[in-house]
Structure formats: structure tokens, C-alpha cells
């Protein structure tokens, strides 16, 4: 009798969870980066898509195509990129209190805007479900510095580097032939 209950309970749980897992199946490798800046740990968890199509191996145009201009992008693949800071930081001119946030990007032909959102756990874009980006939860936005890269980057990369001992650091996203960055410091 107890075995039957356990089997039914497990089956019921699987029936409820499998659709969610199928919807949110990861297609890209994920990475967690963590850097200490002025005694504060900054951690970023994100999906790292490749410039090549994951199934065909075909090279894709990234900026303005796969990541369209004028549309908000989840700054990586699969789940929205997660930023965790133990202390209040400034990212560019934006003050980000200690806590967890998601990062979104609004690319244009001339540059990109980084969006820091107070809601976490989102998957992508859309208005029909709460798990998607909601502008009402934006903490703020900041313009990123754009630079052309001498060598193209095949896999989307986020780096946070420390300027020790001078203090502060740099947040940088690189992919294809472009990089976008902003200074980061403990407030």
C-alpha cells in the first residue's frame, strides 16, 4: 500500500513538472562568474550561446539579426541572466542595492542599454506569463560603452574584472565583433 502511494505521488509530481522542464530546456552551456571588487562579491549566472547554430553548425549574424536591434534581449540564452551583489554597487551611473536581479539588454545599431530588473526567475520575453520580462520591475537602465573587437568572439561572454588596487572594476559583454561595457564600483 505504501509503495503504491509513493509511486502515485512521484507520477503526479512528474506529470506536473515535465511540461515546465520541456518548456525551459537549456540549449546553451551556462556559466557562473564571480569576482570580488573592493571587498564585495559580484556573481553573474548566464547562458552562453554560440555564434554557430546549435543544431546545424551554420554561422549566424548576431547583432541586428539573432539579437534584433530595438528589441529587449535576455542577455544570454535560456533563463534571464542573474546578477547577485552582496553590497550596493554602481553599474555605470545606476545604483544597484545588495540583492539579486536579472539583466536584460536593448541593443541598437549605435550601442546598447543594459536593463537591471528586480524580478528574478524569468525565462525570456512575453507578456502572457509572469515568468517573462516585465518592464514594471525595472530597477533602472544604463547606456553601455560600445567597442569593436579586433578578434570576433564565437561564444557570448560576460566578464567582471577588478581594478585592484585602484578600486572598482569593469562589467563587459562580448560577442561576435562587439563588446559593451560599464564601470562597476562598490558604493
For the sheet with most strands, the description reads: 9 strands, antiparallel
Global shape: globular
Average pLDDT figure: 85
Name the strands of the widest sheet in spatial order. 1-2-3-6-7-8-9-4-5
**Tally of DSSP helical segments:** 1
- Tell me the span between the first and last alpha carbons: 60 Å
Tally of DSSP β-strands = 9
Written account of the structure:
- This protein starts with a helix and ends with a strand.
- The chain contains 1 helix and 9 strands, in the order αβββββββββ.
- A hairpin with a 4-residue loop joins strand 6 (99-107) and strand 7 (112-117).
- Helices cover 12% and strands 45% of the residues.
- The protein is globular.
- It has a 9-stranded antiparallel beta sheet, with no helix packed on it.
- The chain has one helix spanning 2-23, and strands spanning 30-37, 40-47, 81-85, 89-91, 94-96, 99-107, 112-117, 138-162, 169-186.
- By secondary structure, the chain is mainly β.
- It has one domain.
Amino acid at each position: 500500500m505504501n509503495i503504491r502511494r509513493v509511486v502515485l505521488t512521484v507520477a503526479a509530481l512528474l506529470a506536473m513538472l515535465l511540461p515546465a522542464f520541456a518548456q525551459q530546456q537549456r540549449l546553451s552551456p551556462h556559466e557562473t562568474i564571480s569576482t570580488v571588487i573592493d571587498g564585495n562579491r559580484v556573481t553573474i549566472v548566464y547562458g552562453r550561446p554560440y555564434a554557430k547554430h546549435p543544431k546545424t553548425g551554420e554561422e549566424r549574424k548576431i547583432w541586428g539579426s539573432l539579437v534584433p536591434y530595438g528589441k529587449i534581449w535576455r542577455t544570454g540564452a535560456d533563463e534571464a541572466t542573474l546578477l547577485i551583489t552582496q553590497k550596493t554597487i554602481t553599474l555605470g551611473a545606476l545604483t544597484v542595492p545588495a540583492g539579486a536581479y536579472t539583466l536584460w539588454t536593448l541593443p541598437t545599431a549605435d550601442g546598447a542599454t543594459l536593463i537591471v530588473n528586480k524580478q528574478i526567475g524569468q525565462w525570456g520575453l512575453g507578456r502572457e506569463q509572469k515568468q517573462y520580462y516585465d518592464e514594471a520591475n525595472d530597477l533602472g537602465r544604463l547606456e553601455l560603452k560600445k567597442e569593436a573587437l579586433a578578434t570576433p568572439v564565437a561564444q557570448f561572454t560576460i566578464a567582471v574584472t577588478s581594478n585592484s588596487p585602484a578600486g572598482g572594476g569593469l562589467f563587459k559583454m562580448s560577442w561576435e565583433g562587439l563588446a559593451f561595457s560599464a564601470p562597476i564600483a562598490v558604493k
